[in-house]
Description:
- The protein is of the alpha+beta class.
- It has a single domain, classed as Nucleoside Triphosphate Pyrophosphohydrolase (Alpha-Beta Complex).
- Helices cover 17% and strands 40% of the residues.
- It has 2 helices and 7 strands; from the N terminus they run ββββαβββα.
- It has helices spanning 48-60, 122-131, and strands at 3-11, 20-25, 35-36, 39-41, 63-76, 81-93, 103-108.
- It is globular, with a radius of gyration of 14 Å.
- 8-OXO-2'-deoxyguanosine-5'-triphosphate (8DG) binds next to strand 1, strand 4 and strand 6.
- It comes from Blautia ammoniilytica.
- Keywords: DNA damage, DNA repair, DNA replication, Hydrolase, Magnesium, Metal-binding, Mutator protein.
Amino acid sequence: MKTIKVVAAIICDNMKEKNKIFATARGYGEFKGGWEFPGGKVEAGETPQQALAREIMEELDTEIKIGEWVDTIEYDYPSFHLSMDCFWAEVTKGHLELKEAEAAKWLTKDQLDSVAWLPADISLINTIGKYMK
Length: 133
Ligand SMILES: Nc1nc2c([nH]c(=O)n2[C@H]2C[C@H](O)[C@@H](COP(=O)(O)OP(=O)(O)OP(=O)(O)O)O2)c(=O)[nH]1
C-alpha cells in the first residue's frame, strides 16, 4: 500500500500549559467535515518542521514556533497508509485565518471528544489529553 507522509501541528494557546488546542474541520475532499490538526503532506527535500511551517502559512496565514514531537500516527486507510508526525506549536505571528478549513475551534481538555475526529486522529487525542491541563 502507498504510504503518505504527513505533518500536523497541535497548536496550543501556550506550549508550557496547554490549556487549549486548535482543531480545524476539513473544507474539501474525501474527508470533508472531519476534524483534524492543520498540516499536510511533506514534499521532497523538506524536513517535517519545514513542511509544517509551510502548510500552516498556506492554510492559516500564520507563523508558528514548532516545539517538541508529540507522536507519530501510523494508520491504514482503505486506499493508503498514513504516517503522520505531530508536533506541539504556538502562534508567533498571524491570526489563524481559515484559508482551506470550513470551521475551527479551540478545545479544552474536557472538550476533546466533542468533535468528530478523522479516524487516524482518535488515538492521538488520547495522547494529547494526557499532556493538557
Ligand atoms: N493535516 C492533517 N491530515 C490528516 C489528519 N488526520 C488524517 O487522517 N489526515 C489525512 C487526511 C489526508 O488524507 C492527509 C493529509 O493530506 P492533505 O490533503 O491535508 O495534504 P496537503 O495539504 O498536502 O493537500 P493536497 O494539496 O494534497 O490537497 O492526511 C490530521 O490530523 N491533519
